[in-house]
Amino acid sequence: PNPSDSEIETAMNGNICRCGTYTRIKKAIKIASTH
Amino acid sequence: MTKIKTQYNRRSFIKVSTAAGGGMLIGFSWLNACKPGEPAPEPGVAIPNEWFEINGYIKIGDTGMVTIYSPNPEIGQNVRTSMPMIVAEELDVPWENVVVEQAPLNTGWYQNQFAGGSLSIRLSWNALRMAGATGRRMLLEAAAKEWGLAASDVTASEGVIKELNGDRTISYGEIASKAVGIQIPEEVELKGIKDFKIIGTSKKNVDGKKIVTGQPLFGLDFHREGMHLAMIQHPPAFGMKVKDFNVEEIKNMPGVKDAFIVDTSFEGGGGFDEKGFLQLIAIVGDSTWELMQAKKAIKANWETVSELENSNMHLKRLEQALVSGEVEESRIDGNPEAAFKKAAKVIERTYSAPFIAHNTLEPMNFFANVTDDSAELIGPTQTPEALEGSVSKLLGMPIENITVNMTRIGGGFGRRLYVHFGVEAAAISKKIGAPVKLIYTREDDMTQGTYRPTYRSIYKAGLDENNNLIAFTVKGAGLPEGPIFPNRFPAGAVENYSAEKIKAPTNITTGAWRAPRSNFTAGAEQSFLDEVAELAGKDPIDFRLELFDRAIKNPVGEKYEYEAERYAGVLKLIKEKANWGTPQPGVHRGVAAYFCHSTYVAEVFDMVMENDQPKIKKVWCAADCGIVINRDAAKNILEGGVIDGIGHSMYSQLTFENGRPDQMNFDNYQLIRHSQVPEEIEVFFVENEIDPTGLGEPGLPPAMAALANALYKATGTRYYHQPFTSEKQLVG
Fold first, then answer.
1. Residue B66 neighbours by CB under 8 Å, 6+ apart
2. Residue B566 CA to chain centroid, in angstroms?
3. Nearest residue on chain B to A20, judged by CA atoms?
4. Alpha helix locations (H) across B266-372?
5. Euclidean distance between CA atoms B621 and B634, whole angstroms
6. Choosing among B674, B682, B683, which should be mutated to test the A contact, i.e. which has the most A CBs within 10 A?
7. Chain A nearest CA to B679, separation (Å)
8. Among B396, B388, B398, B386, which Cα is nearest to B368's?
9. Distance (Å, rounded) from C-alpha B518 to C-alpha B723?
């Protein structure tokens, strides 16, 4: 899979991150999707 | 290399034999208590057969593995990694050899074991360095003695001791047994900053792997064989108190062991003790599902004991307070009124922000095991010492008989400075005569109180015919405490200045919320200064730099509460890094800078319009926090503060009707979501050798203003009242 930014945001929009690390989560998803 | 005297809490550096003050020492991972078999750590050396206690912070195994005890509560601010990094640096061991254990509350060995005010590193910097340095010194002396040399003939580095004039070497692991009990000298040497090998680098979170593999680290995960579960019901509105409830019916429900009203009040409470809901309905059982069903079946009689407030009342109180309220603190320089009369231009603006909840993702919970003569407390607390004191008062039990162990904490933000949920757990445990873990639901938590106060401030500025700022006044009111720091910027930089901090009453309970008062005042002040700069026809950064110049060269008044050089420094750094002087087509920029908790932060927000909606493309952040300990974690916490600031100023609020909050879960209490955050955040640090100051809070305050300032450039609209999405039709 190779999700775009907006695909990631849509899929993840129900998950709240209270510590504000959303940008790193998105990066991690992109890294994971290359494996 | 600096020398430091070791009189600072020497007791923590003597051989571990018995614990002082804090009762029984629970040295090993409490993880053993909740899951059989300790998860294997993955350091660079084999697990030791034998451990040697060097001092209160360090034990060394015969293989060279090093356990470092982290003293402070971990709320996600990464102290469990960064505090041990400091110890490991001065101890001079490879970081790969280190495993970290949470230290329990022990006032005899550690100091300032709390997570608040962005103070952990700042207050313990010297103590942590000393712990490592004395450990290293003990090992050196042991090796020297072994070789028949003086301590000055040997040197240590990376866990290995070498003789200076020979070939002999010995590892820490091999000599540790002989280091135990060695006398600490009056003075030890600390490393020079340029010799740091660990501090200033980026180290992974020591719990990282455990977290992503779902290990039970949090208070909510804690389990002890034989413990019961408890849930509470507090009054539904501020101003209400419980009278009675259908206790027999609840006790007869499936899985319910007991149900009663628990009174958690006691004499001599302090700043971290509950002032609102002191009598609660408590239900005890063994499964959360059954307890939640029982909660739903509660039929209680609540009596109204003080006014049931609503949001309209709050607004009126704040408006009234700004006219005639009680001034708690103020400052005046020159004669602002006279200056406004002769000013060429005058501008006045009003800003406000609502009550908001902390909403730590892990709701309130605590474990307590109270017997006739002891109390064991385990859970997520930012203030273990305050909790211990309050439980001591509640139970009438000496502090020596109470222990507090800290689990990892799923968010603090100031919420868990307050100890009521630990006190409640202790009260329930005492009543039922058994160990119990108390759990709050999200609704219990969000409606409990301890909120960030609601604020309203009026700013006024006057410019002369040359567009110099000649007068600046601010009046800020809050329920129950005003948001103004009268001696902060621009005090000292403006000839005619006044600031008033005004309070007005409420029975809604409030508490410290990430960067108290700063979390509103920065947004208001820094977006006001943007409007003043615009009125003056000046660039917003240059406008501020001129004021800092005045504060340095020709300060107004007695004193002011910031270092103008450093404050200007972060603005200069962000100006450079963000290429402030080079605008790009379609990119709308806002800037803000704020100083709080001894740290300076400047931020630039780059906004673009996408499908007629403003989107934050990038945030640039420059911080001066002195020496940076864990570089990537430091960036991470600033990024988190930025997003926290954006989220709350844009989306979050509590409204009240008849004393009740209208919002009790995330269906109608908005927190920022994935799709609403900046695409990119880049953090820069001012590189200097100043002793480190904190980062937990300082990233948040400037974000709110930089956001509002960028929004203005992007949309043409200025935003004054948080949350901004409630003010105008604004899709974020």
1. B58, B59, B60, B88, B91, B93, B97, B98, B99, B159, B172
2. 23
3. B640
4. 288-296, 311-324, 336-342
5. 12
6. B674
7. 7
8. B388
9. 16
Give the one of B359, B639, B680 whose C-beta lies nearest to A20's C-beta. Answer: B639
Residues 6+ apart with CB under 8 A from B425: B230, B366, B367, B368, B377, B379, B436, B437, B438
Q: Per the CB < 8 Å rule, is B636 touching A15?
A: no
Cα–Cα dist B87/B21, whole Å: 23
CB distance B308 to B260 below 8 Å: no
Considering only CB atoms, B674 lies closest to which of A13, A18, A19, namely A13
- Give the residue carrying structure tokens 């410290």: B512
pLDDT of residue B43: 60
Rounded to whole angstroms, the Cα distance separating B415 from B272 reads 10
Interface test with B, best of A10, A12, A18, A21 (most B CBs within 10 A): A18
Decide: B256 and B300 in contact? Cβ < 8 Å. no
Residue A25 φ/ψ, nearest 5 degrees: -60, -45
pLDDT computed for residue A1 by the predictor: 84
Alpha carbon distance B26, B102 (integer Å): 10
Distance, CA of B312 to CA of B413 (rounded, Å): 27
Question: What is the rounded CA–CA span in Å between residue B665 and residue B359?
Answer: 9
Average pLDDT over all residues of chain B: 94
Residue B558: pLDDT band (50, 70, 90) is confident
Minimal CA separation from B205 to chain A, in Å: 14
Q: Which two tokens stand for residue B688?
A: 């200097």
pLDDT digits (tens, 9 = 90+) for B110-169: 999 999 999 999 999 999 999 999 999 999 999 999 999 999 999 999 999 999 999 999
The alpha-carbon radius of gyration of chain A (Å, integer) is 10
The predicted-structure confidence for B289-313, as pLDDT tens digits, reads as follows 999 999 999 999 999 999 999 999 9
Q: Are A22 and B643 within 8 A, CB to CB?
A: yes
At B341, the amino acid letter reads K
Residue B398 has which token pair?
Answer: 């000496």
Question: Can you spell out the DSSP letters for B74-125?
Answer: -SSS-HHHHHHHHHHHHHT--GGGEEEEEPPP-TTT-S-----TT-HHHHHH
With CB atoms and an 8 Å threshold, state whether A23 touches B679.
Answer: yes
Percent of chain B residues topping a pLDDT of 90: 91
Closest residue to A18, CB basis, from B361, B680, B681: B361
Average pLDDT on B79-101 reads 97
3-state helix, strand, coil in chain B (%, to 5): 30, 25, 40
Per-residue HEC secondary structure of B152-219 comes to HHEEEECCEEEECCCCCEEEHHHHHHHHCCCCCCCEEEECCHHHCCCCCCCCCCCCHHHHHCCCCCEH
